[in-house]
Design a protein that fits this description.
Helix content: 25-40%
Number of helices: 7
InterPro entries: EFM7, Methyltransf_16, SAM-dependent_MTases_sf
Protein name: Methyltransferase-domain-containing protein
GO molecular function, one term: methyltransferase activity
Keywords: Cytoplasm, Methyltransferase, S-adenosyl-L-methionine, Transferase
Largest sheet: 7 strands, mixed
Organism: Phascolomyces articulosus
Oligomer: single chain
């Protein structure tokens, strides 16, 4: 089915974790999955920090075997994601969980038993959380299937003056992984990923009133990460 999918998304009215916006990155994710359904078909998929969960819902609509949708374990956020799953009648292969990045992945593994790792991990507009780069990468490293699995990281530089901090995510991701490294030594800690910046797409700027270059603020970047 090459037709784009019609998905209805309800957003949380107003939320300190920005879940009340449908971000440009999630729209680009949706069209990326619709154009490349083979990425999702019969695959296990995890979304971190899902917000309205549009990429997850499109992945489910494109035939994923299991989609696990997570966001911060806040009742309003999680109930809203569940509402979006139920409204779009995608529930049978979709599991919604509260999850804090970097914490125990037991519940996320249980959801895909007998498998133990995910084929695809979705990070949609999360790299502006600079303090959470290590936590996100820690979870991705634990849960991604080596060699064939992919982490897709789509984002916009909403604050152009901090763009260099956003892309530090990929520098940290590429540093060599040492299982015995001190987890508190953030300057050397690495995760052993290969990275590829493979997509740039112009969208409308989301926040007209924000400072900084409009071209930068309206461009969505797409990266893929994998474990060799």
């Amino acid at each position: 089915d090459s037709q784009p999918h019609q998905i209805n998304i309800r957003l949380v009215g107003s939320h300190p974790l920005w879940a009340h916006h449908l971000w440009n990155a999630s729209k680009v994710f949706a069209s990326f999955f619709d154009k490349n359904p083979v990425i999702c078909k019969n695959k296990t998929i995890l979304e971190l920090g899902a917000g309205g969960a549009l990429p997850s819902l499109i992945a489910a609509a494109n035939g994923a075997s299991k989609v696990v949708v997570t966001d911060y374990p806040d009742k309003e956020l999680i109930d809203n994601i569940q509402h979006n799953v139920d409204t779009n009648h995608l529930g049978e292969n979709v599991d919604v969980q509260g999850y804090i990045w970097g914490k125990s992945t037991t519940g996320l593994r249980k959801a895909i038993e007998p498998k133990t790792t995910y084929d695809v991990i979705i990070l949609s507009d999360l790299v502006f959380n600079h303090s959470q780069h290590h936590a996100m990468l820690h979870t991705c490293r634990e849960l991604l299937t080596p060699k064939t699995g992919r982490v897709y990281v789509f984002y916009t530089h909403h604050r152009p003056h901090l763009a260099h901090r956003d892309v530090e995510f990929f520098t940290i991701a590429q540093r060599p992984y040492d299982p015995h490294a001190d987890p508190d030594d953030r300057d050397v800690l690495g995760y052993g990923f290969q990275v590829d910046h493979f997509l740039q797409e112009k969208m409308n700027v989301m926040f007209e009133e924000d400072p900084g270059d409009v071209q930068v603020r309206s461009t969505v970047h797409g990266w893929q990460l994998w474990l060799p």
